[in-house]
Structures are given as structure tokens and as C-alpha cells.
Amino acid sequence: MHTVAGMLKRFFTVATGAVLGTLLSAGALHLAWSFWPDRQLNRSVDQLRNVLRLVGDNYVEADRAAYDRLPKEAVQGLVSSLDPHSAYLGAADYQILESDLDGNFGGIGVQVEMRDGRLVVIAPMAGTPGERAGILRGDEIRAVDRQELGAKANMDEVIKQLRGRPGTSVRVGLYRPETQQPIEVVITREIIRQLSVRAAEMLTPETGYIHVTDFSAQTVKQFQEAVGRLKAAGMENLVLDLRNNPGGLLQAAVGVSEVFFSRDELIVFTQGRRPGDREEFRAKSRGDALAMPVIVLVNSGSASAAEVVTGALKDTGRAVIVGERTFGKGSVQSLFRLKHGEGLRLTTALYYTPNGTSIHEKGIAPHVEVIMSPEEDNRLRIQRLRQDIRDPEEFARRFGFAPIEDRQLQVALDLTQSARLLAQREATN
């Protein structure tokens, strides 16, 4: 018996040792695997370091291969290769982005775009130094501080030159196609306060109209004030114009949407790469939701935060969408501040409407499709920006064309009128 007992004791000792050995081996393996991501990262960093050294030591043009330049360009290439919306931002670019999101920046107050390699003024903003200096729609910017832009002008770089500390001056060289004459103006920069809500008015005794051009830190307050003014004026229907609205801050889009939602209702959610990355944005409003017929106007220039508002109102049946399919920019960019004032804009999640539909690369289809030609859209964009010029002759003189009918807006008005007539019929039955 003692012999058998001894054998069993030795067996259990060996077995226990084997199990412990297996567990220790598994633990060591798990520990080794836990270091694997860092190991891969270190290998990648080593590879990048070797390439930077080879380029820095051997590239034919030493200035272009300087060690203080190569890493930044490598990071720019790395991030920009991910998607069109991720980017490495130098200190100046990061500061400009922050000022844009805040809704205030120092500049001259003109909107520009590239056309066939030329930097053309779309329209000067009302009440800004650019307008007071006499800059007109269609003027071409040829020089800044007497430096010719050349055929390969970069719009972002020119905008940086036009912006600056309020109170400082900038010399702008223009060419006016209408007179075929060069013009030079010296403009003193001011704080340009971007109005997200460019128009808030009653189109009919019952129908209010609000035009939101972007979503910045100022948007929610401006929108709520506009809604309050129009309700006091007797608004029973609302046309919300989000055409050519490129988006902006997600929180601003949620804040605008809250006007139409009751507390705790889902407005939008985002989903990152991990299951636990889902983040829901629900209404925090304490008052009553705005309950009235709403028409939302959109087109292919309506993107990002504008699509969040559109998707929330469409999914929940709170609005009729009129216009064209939206752009389809349904990704979330997070801003990371780096050393020396630089930054990183990185796509970290995708937007989803309350019904769980992804906006990204799909856009939102309208209930009622009304397609505008590029020429119509461009002219209407200028008309919407210059609501302050009511006289058709003056408008034609300043912008080169007579005001045209806004067909999408007219359809929206027709729909509100139909809804009103139906409501009256139901009330009498």
C-alpha cells in the first residue's frame, strides 16, 4: 500500500508540475504576444529610420533631404494615404483650423475658389473689409503683398497670406475681367465673425426660412435665437436650408437637431474600430420639441454635420427632405494636438443615423428630388450669400447676372402650402 501510495504521490507531483509548467509556458507565451504590437511598431520605426538616413545622406539635393524636413513630409504622406479627410497639420494650419471651428478669425472677408488655375472671388462677405475696399464677385487675386501668385497658386497658401492679426494690413493685387484692368487695394484685416445662420426670415405669413452655412461653435446659439424670432413672428412651418453646407462640429449639429427632439431621443451615433467605441448622442433639451412641418433643403454640397441633421430628421419622420442626394461624408475626424503647436486630424469613426444607416460614401437621398444645374447652383449660392441686396438691377450690376428662381425653395414652399391646406381640410371634417 505504501508503495502504491508513494507511486500515486509521485504521479500527482509530476502531473501537477506538468500542469504548472504548461500554465507557466502559456503565461509566458501570452506575455510574449502582448509585446508583439510594440515589436511590430519598433520594426516599422527602424525601417523608417533607415530610409530617412539613406535619403538624408544620399539624395542629390541636400536642402530637400534635410533631417528637419524629412520626418514632417513622411508623416504627411503617411496620414494623407489613409483617406482624404485625415491630415498632418503644421502649426499655422492647426491654428487656422481652430479659428475656423471657433467661428472667428482675422482676415479681409472674401470667399474664393480655384477656377482653371485662377484664384477667383466668389463674393465678398457683407460688412467686411473686402467689401468696403470694393472687391467684387469675379475679381481674380493675382498678387498678395506684391508677390505674384503664378500659375500654380495654392488656394490654402493664399488664404494663409490674406489672413493675419487684426489691425495689420495686406496689399492685394486684383484683375477685374469686366474692365480688363489690374487693381491694387490695401486692406486692414479685422476679426471676421462668421455667421452660421446667414438668413432667418418669414417667406410667407406662416413659413419661416433659416439658412445655416456651416456648423461652428457659434451655430447652436444663432440657430436657437433665429427659431425664437420666427416663432414670435408667427411661424407655423419651417424651411431649413443646408445646401452647400460643408459641415463642421458634430456637437453643433447635435445642438441644432435638439431643437426638434424630446429629451433622451437618439439623434446620431458613431462607431469606431472596436465594438466598445460606439458613442450615442441624444437630445439634452429640457423644453418642448419644435412641433411643426419642416422642409430641409439639401444638395451635393451638403456634407458631414449637415448630413447628421438631415439624417436625424429624415429617419424620425420630422422633416421632408427636398433637393439632391447629399455628399456622403459620414466620417468623424478627431483632432490631436502634437508638440510645437502642430496637430493631427484623424478619421476615428463613422456616423450612423438613428435607424443605423451609414452616411459615408452614400449620402442621404431626398424625399423629393429637384436637380439644379451647376450654373444655377453657383448663381443661387451668390444670391443666398447676398441677401442684403434686394434690388434686382443693383444685384445684376454688381454680380453680372439677374437673380434667378430658386426651384428647390419653390418646391419647399409648395409643400408647406399643401400641408397647410390639408390641415385646414382635416380641421373642417
Question: Your description of this structure?
Answer:
By secondary structure, the chain is an alpha+beta fold. It has 2 domains: 107-193, Pdz3 Domain; 197-423, 2-enoyl-CoA Hydratase, Chain A, domain 1. Helix content is 39%, strand content 24%. The protein has helices at 2-34, 36-58, 70-80, 91-102, 129-132, 155-162, 219-232, 250-257, 305-315, 374-385, 392-399, 407-428; strands spanning 87-89, 104-107, 110-115, 118-124, 140-144, 147-148, 169-176, 181-188, 190-193, 197-202, 207-212, 237-241, 266-271, 279-282, 294-298, 320-323, 331-337, 343-352, 368-369. β15, α9 and β16 form a beta-alpha-beta unit. The protein is globular, with a radius of gyration of 29 Å.
CATH class of the largest domain: Alpha Beta
Shape: globular
Strand order of the largest sheet: 10-11-12-15-16-19
Judged by helices, strands and strand pairing, the structural class is alpha+beta
Main β-sheet description: 6 strands, mixed
Span between termini? 102 Å
The percent of residues in helical segments reads 25-40%
